[in-house]
Write a structure and sequence with these properties.
With 181 residues, the chain is mainly alpha-helical. Helix content is 58%, strand content 6%. The protein has a two-stranded antiparallel ribbon. The protein has a two-stranded antiparallel ribbon with strand order 3-4. Strand 1 and strand 2 form a beta hairpin. The longest helix has 24 residues.
Length: 181
Amino acid sequence: MKVYTKKGDKGTTQLIGGTRVPKCSLRIEAYGTVDELNSYIGLVRDQDILPIYVEQLKLIQDRLFTLGSLLADDGNVKMKLPQLTDDDVKALENWIDEMDEALEPMRNFVLPGGHTTVSYCHVARCVCRRAERIVVDLANSENVDEIIIVYLNRLSDYLFTLCRKLSKDLNVEETPWLPNG
């Protein structure tokens, strides 16, 4: 099977149900940003981190593929697509709670950085927030399952908590943001 089809040479792409849309459509922007997020999570997963986080990130990457396929659904899909569930959101919440138990309470916002691994995770968090904003915008004009927005919101919380936990695991001091004003 060839990678290139030439069908997109005029600036359109096909959704799962067969509808052709401009490559700049909000739906394409939404699942393209989820794909970018998935790639950044892969970058975090490739760092020297605890195996438990590697496994969690693999599961998250699987869920992001599911989420992307749901966003690529034009409403005419005849095949059964995988689904996100409340259990997927609950898993993120449980992982957040487990990490949070090992962390000092937050007293300030923290500046991203301190170690390359932590910085990659902060980039993933920011891309997750962007994906969430785009999906919310899409939901204002098209049908989007609410669980997609919930999952992305919780995932950004997970990634922030993971940033803090990685800082602790790597013995990196968090730099608090202390406003000048």
